[in-house]
Specification:
Layout (H helix, E strand, L loop, with lengths): L2 H22 L4 E4 L4 E4 L12 H27 L10 H29 L7 E4 L1 H26 L9
Helix pairs in contact: 1-2, 1-4, 2-3, 3-4
């Protein structure tokens, strides 16, 4: 397997793991007050009936990004097996799905970031983003990298001859 496809597979796999960890943990932001601290994520645990719309949008786009990322990694794995993939097309289709995953994750993170910044602050409570939030941005960057590396792998792949068509 050529190095570009291997690097694309590594970046896509790391992006998928980062997105799944970010989705499943509840350390998107942390609030530190005078006597205690609290953290929250995308999946409210209390019996809150009313969840903010920006949380639903972030959940939806993050899940769509993870599904596209899974498809991208799957297509890259299949492109390594010549009998299961069209010659030279696996990295191209994988790149497109990686770019779509990156776009979905950027939308999810932008919605979460913009709405979080617009919420009112209490002067005695210090709140900030936490590590799950940053993993979401890392996943978007890694999917963009995987898509770019997949395009390089596609452009440098040997073209099939007449006897292989």
């Amino acid at each position: 397997m050529e190095p570009w496809r291997s690097l694309a597979l590594l970046a896509g796999s790391l992006a998928l793991v980062s997105a799944l960890v970010a989705l499943s943990t509840d350390f998107w932001f942390v609030a530190i007050g005078p006597g205690s601290s609290a953290h929250s994520g995308l999946w409210p645990k209390r019996g809150e009936d009313l969840v903010a719309d920006f949380i639903h949008v972030t959940q939806t786009f993050s899940i769509l990004a993870a599904l596209c990322g899974l498809g991208s990694v799957g297509l890259l794995v299949l492109s390594c097996i010549p009998s299961l993939s069209a010659p030279g097309r696996g990295p191209l289709v994988s790149s497109i799905t990686a770019f779509v995953a990156a776009l979905f994750m950027v939308v999810a993170m932008a919605v979460y970031t913009s709405d979080w910044w617009s919420q009112p602050r209490h002067p005695q409570i210090q709140s900030s983003f936490s590590w799950s939030f940053y993993l979401g941005w890392v996943a978007a960057l890694l999917w963009f990298s995987a898509g770019s590396l997949g395009l390089v792998a596609h452009s440098r792949a040997p073209r099939p001859g007449y006897d292989e068509v």
